[in-house]
Amino acid sequence: MTRGSSLVARLSSLVSRRAVSHKPRATNNERRATSFWSNVAAIAYKEASVIRHDKPLLITVFAQPIMMLMLFGLALSNKPANVPWLLLDQSQTAASRRLAAEIENTGYFLRPRAVGSYDAGVDQMKSGKAMAMVVIPSEFRRALERGQPQIQLLLDGADPLSAARVGSYIGRVARGFRLEALPSNMPDAPILQNAAFDLRQRFWFNPTLADRNFFLAAIAGMLLTNLCLSATSLGLVAERESGTYEQMLSLPTTPLQLLLGKLIPYVGVSYAVMLLATAAAAIFFGVWPKGSWLTLIIVTLPFVLASLSIGVLVSTLAQTSAQAVFVTVFFILPSFVLSGSMLPYQFMPHGIREIGAAFPLRWYQIATRGIIERGAGLADVAIPFLTLTALFVTILTLARLRMKPRLD
Questions:
Q1: Cα–Cα dist 117/358, whole Å
Q2: Do residues 231 and 313 lie in contact, with contact meaning Cβ atoms separated by under 8 Å?
Q3: Domain count of the chain?
Q4: How far is residue 262's CA from residue 274's CA, in Å, rounded to a whole number?
Q5: H or E element: which one contains 142?
Q6: Contact 273, 227 (CB under 8 A)
Q7: Which CATH number do you get for residue 134?
Q8: Whole-model pTM over 0.90
Q9: What is d(CA 240, CA 323) in angstroms, rounded to the nearest whole number?
Q10: Residue 104 and residue 197 in one domain
Q11: How far apart are CA 72 and CA 69, in angstroms?
Q12: Staple 245 to which of 76, 163, 239, 276, CB 3.0 to 4.6 Å?
């Protein structure tokens, strides 16, 4: 009995010693885990405090989804609106004028611009001033009397979606004209009611209406916008954060010289990206520029400089790298949407369309699509070229005013 009790005592002592030996280990693990997560929580609290006091960053973060919702909910639409078009009226009769009025009264088209010849209309379409041209032949009145009216519709196929929709709406007006165009008391009204319109559509610049031509003609502009803004928006901010900004200001240079010196190296990189994108689209997809390569190179320069200047302006406004990144993204996304690179800007409502005109990409995509798809020359893209130059000078001036020339 004594030996049994002593054995039990020894076993209980051994178990208790093992329990004691394991207890410190569990405590140490718990302490390590507690210490790990407490350190994470402290760092997270510090970063949250920084974000909470960074009001420009918070405004940018929460304004961006609101802006995108408004753009995609209100501004963007595939429904034709404010469509510029040309009218070549060789008939000059009441019936031809009424047909033009019916097209305008749909609410989708602007007032037509009259042209005197076929070639003059094609030249205006080449420069991007019109999306369609209605040609009413001189025998239009007699064709109505015979019950075989015929008109020709020329459409800018450089934008396939817009061309198809515009052609559909004009065709609808033409088919309904015989029933609604003229009052019933006119002598030829019964003839018109039995007439069947022959609407002959012809798509210029992109006869097959290939969608990829529309997007590939503007891909260089989107790539350059992303490159230029991302490359320069962090320039001055990074130097301020690293402490080299003061050294830069101590150099015997003016702020304008500093800004131009920061822009010039990226001009060469931008040209390389533009040539690569354009050549790749031509080689692999057959979208060769119909216009001059020299014209494309010339019109690219003010666009690149204007885009780089926007990045520098963002860098002068932002206080931290995070702010610079968010402001850059805040600018790039609307630029893609409102410029017309992804959807036709002609279909956007007034106000939104004018805001999009402030983005350099709007004017560059007009120029590149004119050069690549329509074969436009330098004279045809003179307005986008001059507008991009004016934007560059304006934005560079604002960046110069924001940049402190000396240490405070």
A1: 34
A2: no
A3: 2
A4: 20
A5: helix 140-146
A6: yes
A7: 3.40.1710.10
A8: no
A9: 13
A10: yes
A11: 5
A12: 239
